Amino acid sequence: MVTISHCFQSLRDRQQCALIPFITAGDPDLTTTAEALRILDRNGADFIELGVPYSDPLADGPVIQAAATRALQTGIKLEQVLEMLRDVSPKLKAPLILFTYYNPILHRGIQAFLAEIVAAGVRGLVVPDLPLEEAGKLIQAAAAFGVEVILLVAPTSSQDRIKAIARQSQGFIYLVSVTGVTGMRSQMQSRVQHLLTDMRNITDKPIGVGFGISTPEQAQQIREWGADAVIVGSAFVKKLAEGSPTQGLQAVEKLCRELKAAISPISLQTVASA
């Protein structure tokens, strides 16, 4: 099993910034989700984050909430998502990161849940409502399965808390760029740059920045500020939901290519010399 950590080390060796698209499983349907995963994998995604639809998604903004609601209304459940992944994941190069809230994990039991997601090809796990103080049990159990639990740093986190999160987070550290829920923003807040600098003085683990990034220009800015990964969610979810599934998939492919080009070293050199 290729770990997220190993993939990030390979990207660092090549001085590349990772692109991590996010989509919601089952919106508009699982067949489209499966094809979207393949398209993202072929068009520049270094990792892919897949959200499991949940009825009370506290960390998600209106776009992703609406996608989760639509998926739930058609009867999408975790079992179906994992069944789809068992078929698709062997054909993907990009490691899969599952985004889920903690209740489904507790409902199944940590060991059983981890066994299921590993069998489906999942390599990483983001649990936005799992506080640092309660994360140790899941992190320890996940390590035995080869799954890396990625913890989130809020822009309001203290230095001591950032240090504690950095010590425990596996794979990379997920820096939330804004206070609040996910969603597209018109511009990036400059404090993200200062947060990245502060975190570099604390840890050498990779740092991915997410929440609020939707355009190639914003992605390029985040890379120039020193992020190891750019995480884009609502923009992809919105594109996939617009028009027919075929139109949505075409829009996702186009956005993925544009974002990857914006954070690639060649693109940045071209911009600098223009």
From TrEMBL:
Looking at the keywords, is Lyase present?
A: yes
Which reaction is recorded as catalysed by this protein? (1S,2R)-1-C-(indol-3-yl)glycerol 3-phosphate + L-serine = D-glyceraldehyde 3-phosphate + L-tryptophan + H2O
Identify the keywords attached in UniProt to this record, alphabetized.
Amino-acid biosynthesis, Aromatic amino acid biosynthesis, Lyase, Tryptophan biosynthesis
Q: In which pathway does it act?
A: Amino-acid biosynthesis; L-tryptophan biosynthesis; L-tryptophan from chorismate: step 5/5
Highest taxon listed in the record's lineage: Bacteria
Its EC number(s): 4.2.1.20
Report whether Amino-acid biosynthesis shows up as a keyword of the record: yes
**A Pfam family hit:** Trp_syntA
Q: Where is the active site?
A: E49, D60
Judged by the first EC level, this protein's enzyme class is lyase
InterPro entries linked: Aldolase_TIM (IPR013785), RibuloseP-bd_barrel (IPR011060), Trp_synthase_alpha_AS (IPR018204), Trp_synthase_suA (IPR002028)
What does the subunit comment say? Answer: Tetramer of two alpha and two beta chains.
Q: Which family does it belong to?
A: Belongs to the TrpA family.
Q: Which HAMAP family match?
A: Trp_synth_alpha (MF_00131)
**Free-text function comment from the UniProt entry:** The alpha subunit is responsible for the aldol cleavage of indoleglycerol phosphate to indole and glyceraldehyde 3-phosphate.
Q: Could you tell me what this protein is called?
A: Tryptophan synthase alpha chain
- Per the UniProt record, the source organism is Nodularia spumigena UHCC 0060
Organism classification: Bacteria, Bacillati, Cyanobacteriota, Cyanophyceae, Nostocales
